Amino acid sequence: MTGHTPFEVWNEDLNAICGSYFGVPKSGQNTVSGRITVKSFDTLDVADISGNIDKIVRNRRGIRQDDAEHIFLVMEMDGQLGVDHNGHCAILAQGDCILLDSTKEGTLANLDTHRRILSFHLPRQSFLNERGVVPRIGERLSSNSDAARTLGRHLSRVLRPEGRPGRATTLFDLVHHAFSRPDAGLASAVVSDTTTRFDLAVDLIDLNLSWDGLKLPWLAKQLGLSTRQAQRLFEEQGTSFREMVRSKRYRFVREQLDRVDGAHGRIADIAFQAGFRDLSNFNRGFRHRMGMTPREYHAQSVAGMAQKSKIRAGLQR
Prior knowledge:
Blueprint (H helix, E strand, L loop, with lengths): L3 E3 H12 L3 E3 L6 E3 L2 E6 L2 E8 L3 E4 L1 H6 L4 E9 L2 E5 L2 E5 L4 E5 L4 E5 L4 E9 H8 L14 H10 L12 H12 L14 H14 L8 H8 L3 H9 L5 H19 L7 H8 L4 H12 L3 H23 L1
Antiparallel strand pairs: 1-3, 2-6, 4-5, 5-12, 6-11, 7-10, 7-12, 8-9, 8-11
């Protein structure tokens, strides 16, 4: 990745590909030595980011601005990157990987004269719900580990367009294997403040989204709260347990319709997988939220892929 890009253009490309993440230039910096392009890994977008700016930040304003939610699998390709995210601080060297959650604040600081990363955009609701394991968000996966080497071989396919393309579902499995903590029970976590308790509640919803037993009393018990206290926890965030669950279930359906081939014939299965049990109710709710039926949404998504390909080609010029 060579060349120079005006900082404003570089930052606009970052927003266009990754959402509301904001680049911070060095003092007096107007031009970035590097650029941002987007590649494809099966149905996933991959941002190829290089540059010598000071840092990239994700704040509460950026989180509120983005409707889509992602888990970003970041692999350091060149230089060193300092990451402050989800209560962890890590320094990434070449070959190291880390998972970032777009629903959480974070800072990526450039610790070298030049830095390049690959960022694989995994749809958050699908990634968390389909595997049922809590991944280690914000913790470095060393390039020396067997898991990182296996993952690196798979990720490198994005840099070899002439090779056999990777599959998103296989990548999901590899990432969960590499970053999972199967012995860590969420219910036994030490919760010391309201913000941490709410984050834990959201994680429990994500991991049990399709389960019929996902009810407020069950969640309250996992958190060590009364049902009324658990209800107040959501009210303090301007929402409710019921609305959060429904929103996440509809987001899961949208993610599936955006990335699954032949989704037209599987809409009922996808709705059931998301936790919906009444299809008529699901269809009415989807139309109310999106202004169209699930079939119409999928057709629009397919058309949007063609437009995205044009944008991708423009960014790669």
